[in-house]
Amino acid sequence: METVMAHPFAKYLREAMMPHIWCSGCGNGIILNCFVQAVDELQMDLNKLVVVSGIGCIGRAAGYVNTNSFHTTHGRPIAFATGIKLANPELEVVIISGDGDLFAIGGNHFIHAARRNIGIKVICANNFNYGMTGGQQGPTTPVEALTTTTPYGNIEHPFNLVHLAAASGATYVARWTTLHVRRLTQSIKKLLQKEGFGFIEVVSPCPEIFGRYNKMRTGLEMMEWFRKVSAIENFSDPAKAEITPERIVVGEFVDIAKISYEKLIHEKIAEINEKKMQW
Amino acid sequence: MAQTIIDTANHIAGYAAKAARVKVIAAYPITPQTTIVEKIAEFVENGEMDSEYIRVESEHSAMVACIGAAAAGVRTFTATSAHGLALMHEALHWASGSRLPIVMAVVNRAMGAPWSIWPDFSDSLSQRDTGWIQFYCADNQEVFDTIIQAYKLCEDERVYLPAMICLEGFILSHTYMPVKIPDQNEIDDFLPPYKAGWILDVNRPFSHSNLVSPEWYMEFRYMIQEAMENAKRLIQQIDKEYGKRFGFEYGGLVEKYKCEDADLILLTMGTMGSEAKIAVNNLRKEGLKVGSARIRVYRPFPVEEMRRLAEQAKMFATIDRHISFGMEGFLATEVKASLAGEKEPPLVAGFIAGLGGRDVTSETIVKIAKKSLKWMKIGKVEKETEWVDLRD
Ligand SMILES: Cc1ncc(C[n+]2csc(CCOP(=O)(O)OP(=O)(O)O)c2C)c(N)n1
Ligand code: SF4
Ligand SMILES: [Mg+2]
Fold first, then answer.
1. B3-246 belongs to which CATH class?
2. Ligand 1 atom 3: the closest Cα is on which residue?
3. Which of A48, A61, A78, B138 has the fewest CB atoms found within 10 Å of its own CB?
4. Chain-chain contact of B58 with A156 (C-beta, under 8 angstroms)
């Protein structure tokens, strides 16, 4: 019998960066795994793939994938990615980043990228807090959840990310949890093939910090919560898909066709150049 | 009642904000600042602090929220590090330009790229010209004392400027030391409630920070410069008064150690000042006349102190945990500028050390001193800026 020593996906990861920094039971590894699986199934040209991330635990993903990658400043991956995509529309630009990075400090970039419909793809690991800095409250922290900056319960209302993405103009919007590995993988495949701005929210366990403060100390307990309360409702109203302790609606919410910003801009340039020739 | 607690400088900064009866705190987490705001969040939520804690979505918003709160007439506090401070840059000018006495702890961390979470002064020194007073601390007690002193100073009508209290990440921020926290009544007596110089008030509406024509803009800038000059005097007075009341005094703008008869004076900032004292003691055992002057206040810069020290010293060695690319360390530049025009000024040798958290121990400083003494003997600095322990 032949013994295979390397993991079949080893070529997608930078071995020199291993071991990774993620805690045991963390969902980030599952997200990375699903992403790599999708890239493999699509047989994507790794030279044309760019993974961009901001800062946070999940942000390390950019350093782990063996593609072109860019680990940017906190909150700015979408701005960096916008530049990459406009400079070279041939590149497939994917952002893998956190809820804090994309929706707190970088929230402004998200809504404008979606509004413009620039062809970059965003995968957000929503673990309900700023994991990397030790578990503070952020824009997706559920009401009453305990964090290091809300030791007696959060009073702020969180974003409903799929609603925000849909309302801002994204052409593809989906939400899954790390429990839904096969559906998430298929969804990422779809995302990568879409034109324009696409978004997937992955509800992800952070047992080490968020879970610890909220009576779910292990990855398993957090996954158990996802299993109990998540319901697949494809193409339901994203406005009604708020995450609560009792209910996590998952599925695809938006899948529409719309011409991308990079196409429009290059068409415009061609049009102007043509007019110039006629002058 | 006064009490002594053993805690990290970050938690101590939280205790100081509590002792100062800060009313509004707005902050965004960043390593290694985070545990300051976590401590404060805990105090606010458990009722020990009668304050509002705003969990803003970025540092830019944190500073702007503090500006709003201070403009509404209350005492404010925030804390940040490195990239967070850089992101605040625009708002820093607004705080000083609006003459609002905001106090902020800056937990020093090196700037990226490449990423680093370890300390140097490149974050706060990059904000040198924003009109903020800058203090640099050498231990946890000084962090506590300086925050209290800073409110007293900044809220003085002759100053009305914001201040950064800088402390090096990890070396202080996460290190436990005993700290004496004075009795709250005595702190209240030293630091009465904030009386704002101007206040946004519905009954007396007026507009602030509007467009100013070239006829007046310079005058507003001049007033900030005057306030900085006033601060120089007041920092010394306040430090003395604080020392009398609470037992801790830091020499005002510069903490001098065995400088009286020194041929060589080591000029440092922050925790390098503590290491420099050990180095001085060891060098003195060898009969070498070396002293240490730790620049505690970098803005306003202690020009006069530098000149006084220059009267008898033959040689200065500046140790910068920072580099102004294309020039030298800021401390070197500013010390030289302070001495320009003096009769027979001491030689000044500049050393760059400890960037991105590399340790600057007393042994490192002894090496620096010995090299400087060699140059002093030959009457010539052979290398204007020396990078200490640089790898090939
Ligand atoms: C300007 C700036 N502010 C703050 C930080 C500190 N910081 C690093 S990661 C992070 C939050 C990350 O949260 P999230 O994006 O949700 O990722 P997670 O760690 O939860 O995966 C913060 C506040 C920074 N690096 N830069
Ligand atoms: S802190 Fe949370 S998000 Fe970060 S690696 Fe650990 S489990 Fe994952
Ligand atoms: Mg997060």
1. alpha beta
2. B84
3. A48
4. no
